[in-house]
Amino acid sequence: MKYEYKLCEPSWCPGCGNYMIRTALKQALEELEIEPHQVVVSSGIGQAAKMPHYIKVNGFNGLHGRALPPAIGIKMANKDLKVIAESGDGDTYGEGGNHFIHTIRRNIDITHFVHDNQIYGLTKGQSSPTTAMGQETTLQFDGVKVEPLKPLALALTMGAGFVARGFSGDIPHLVEIMKEAINYKGYALVDIFQPCVVWNKVNTFSWYKNRVYHLPEDYDYTDKERAFKKSMEFGDRIPIGIIYKVEKETYGDKLDTIKNGKSLVDRELNPLDAEKLLKIFR
Amino acid sequence: MDFSVLVGGEAGQGMDTFAHLLEKTLTRCGFYVFSHSDYMSRVRGGHNFIQIRFSDRPIYTYNLKVDIVFALNEETVNLHNDKLNNEGIIISDKGIAKDKDIIHLPLIELAKKLKNSRVYPTVGLGAILKYFGLPRDVSKGVIKEEFSDRIAEVNMGALDMGYDLLEQRYNLQSTEGENILINGNQAVGLGAIAAGCKFYCGYPMTPSTGVLNFIAANADEMGIAVDQVEDEVAALNMALGASYAGVRAMTGSSGGGFALMVEALSLAGMIEVPIVLINVQRPGPATGFPTRTEQSDLRFMIHAGHGEFPRMIMALRDTEDAFYQTVRAFNLSEKYQIPVLLVSDQYLADCMTTKPSFDFSKIEIKRYLVEAKDITGEEYKRYKYTDDGISPRLIPGKVPGQVVLVDSDEHDQWGHITESGEIRIKMVDKRMKKFGLLKDEVEEPWLIGDEKPKNLVVCWGSTYGAVKEAVDRLNEEGISVGALVFGDIWPFPTKRLFEMNNFVERIIDVEQNATAQLDSLIREEALIKCSDKILKYDGRPFSGDELYNRLKEVL
Questions:
Q1: Phi and psi at residue A143, in whole multiples of 5°?
Q2: Mean pLDDT across chain B
Q3: Which of A89, B60, B89, B100 could form a disulfide with A116 if both were Cys (CB 3.0 to 4.6 A apart)?
C-alpha cells in the first residue's frame, strides 16, 4: 500500500529491465520502512529517469545528465530526506559525467542507482558510454571505436566509499544491495544491469544471466585492491554484489552549518539576524 | 569639497590595502567615498589602479581629474599624469619614479626601518592624511581592526613615519559618521543573507566571485550552505534542488557562466521552482574583457532559455539599490514561483561607496508556502490549476502521505508527464498568466532631474551614478534635462515612459554597450524611438564628467 505504483502508464517497453528495478526499489523502501514523503528521487532524462513518475514518491525529474546536482541541493537543504538519484548510463556517465566525478569527491549522503543497459534507448539505439568496443549500433554501424567507461573502477579510483553492481534479473539480490546502499552514510553507487529489449541485441537478459555471479560470502569488501580487481572483471564472468564498502566522513558532516542543528529548511528566517554583519562595513 | 586620490601600480604591490585603509578612514570621518578599481586579468604585475573620490556631500561616480596620484611604479606616472587637476600632485618613492615633477618621498627607506618594506604604501598613507589634515588615530583604529597585532603594529609605525612627510595643505573638518562603505557584490550578498538565503552555490568567475566570497565568509555565522560547484551547469541545477526542498537559494555568475546556466533556467521556468540568480556582467562575447565593465547581456537575459516562460529581470543601480532589490527578488521569486534575474556589472560589483546604513527592519520575508491544513482531503497537486496561475507550493517531506513531484517534461496537475495537447495549452496558459501579473508588479524607473524636462535621458543599472551627476550639473546650468533610470527592466515598465513621451522633445539613450539594447527594448515595448544614443564600450565606466561632456555635445 505504502509504495503504490502511480496510475500513469509507464512508457517502458514490455520486458524492459526498468520494471524489475522499480519492483526492487519499492520492496527495498518498504522493507526499510521509509514513508514515501520521506524520500526524494532525483532523475535526469531517459527511460530510467522516469522512475519518480511510476512510484509514489517525491520526485525531481530534471534535465538530461543533471540528476545529481539537484539531489545534492536537496540533501543540503533538508538532511532529513532520503535522497536517491536514479538514471541511465547515458545520463549518468555521458551527459552527466562531470557531475558523477564531482559527486564522488563530495561524498554527500545520497544513493545513486544507475540503470545500465549499455545503449541509448530513448534516442533509438546509439552507443552509450558503457557500450562495448566493436559493438554495432544504429549510429556506430561499423562498430564502436572508443573504450567503454568502467563505472565501478572509475568510482573506486575517485575514492567512492560504496560501490556495487546489481542485476535487474535477480530482484532479491538487488533489493539487498539497494537497502545497504540507502542505509550507507555517504555517496553510494549501484550500477544495475538491465536489458534494453529493443535496441541492445548483444547485452540481452540471457547475456547478463549467463555471466553474472554473486560475490562469495567471505568476500572482504573493505579490501580496496581486491575491489579494484573485481571492478575490472568484465567478460564471461561478471561479479554482482557490494564490491567495496568502507565508512567515510560525509560532506554534510564536514560542514558545521549542516551538521549542527536542524535541517536548513526548518530554520527560522529573521532579517534582523543579519544586521550584525553591518559592522564589517563601518 | 570634492577630492580624488589615484593609487596605481602592479598587482600585488599593496594598493588594495592602501585604498581600503583610506576609504574606511574617510567614511569614519563622515565623508562620502566613491572608489572604483581598474584591474587586469592577472595575479601579479601588470598595471592596476584604484581611484578614491571623496566629498562632504553624497557622490555617485568618479571624477576624470584627480588631486593626488600615488605612484607605486613609474608606469603609473606616465599613464595618469594627464588626469591631474591644476593643483594636483604626484607622489612616489624616489627610487621608483624619477621624473622631476614628482614629490619624492623616502617611503621605502622608512619602511625598511620597520623591517618590512612591503608596508611602504602605508607610509604614503600617513603623508596623504597630513596633506588633507585628516586625523591619523582614525586610520590607526581601522588598522587595529583589520590586521593581526604584529602587522597592525608595523602599519601604525609606518603611518606615523609618513605623517610629516608632506606639508598640510587642507584642513578637512571631519565628523563621526554612522555610514557604511560597501561594494555592489557585498551589497547583493548582504541582501541575500538578510532575505534568508540558506543556499548559495557558484563557480568562481570574475567579476561575480565577490558575491560568492561574501556569502561564504559569513556562512557559518549565518547558517548558510555554500558550495563551490564543478561548473555553472551544476550551480543552477543544485540551487534548484535546494529551492525545491524548501530553502531560499541563489546562484550567480558572469556572462559566460550565465550562458552555461541557460539550460537550467529553462528548467526553472518549467518546474516553477523559485530561484534568484545574478549575472554580474563583463564585456563579451566569449571570455571578452574579464575584469572590465559593460552592459551587454540585457537582451540575452531577456531571451535566455528555450521555450516560453515568465521571468523577472531587475537591474541594480547602486549599492543601496542592490541590497534592497536582492531582498525583493527573493520575495517575488517565491510569490510567483519564477526565476528572478538580477543584473549587475563589474563597475557596480567593485566600486566602494559610502551609503547610509541599510535598514534591516524594513525587510519582510514572505514565503507563500502551503501547509498540511491547506491540502487536507485531497491528493496534493503541485501544478494545480488556479485563477492566477500560481499553484500552492508544498515543501516535500512535511506532510505524511503527500508527495511533491516536479518535472521538466510537460506535465499534468500532479507533475506527471503528459502528451495531451489540451493539458499542454492549460499549463502554458497557467505559466504565462504569471507574466501578466508581473507586469503589474514591476516598478517604474526612477525619475531624476527636471520632472517636466525638454530632454529625457534613459538608462539602466549602474550608469545611474554618472547620469545623476551629469543631469544635476546640466540642471544647475539651467538646461532642462531629466532621466529615467530603469531598475526593473523585464517585464518592461512603460507607464512613466509613455507619460513623459507626451511632452519631451528629445530622448537620449545612455548605455555601456555597442548596440543600444535599451533603445531597442523601448522601441519594441513602447513603440517609442530615442533621438540620440550615447554609447560606451571600451570596458571602462562612464564618469559623471565624461557623460556631462557627451550630453553637452548632443543637447
A1: 100, 145
A2: 96
A3: A89
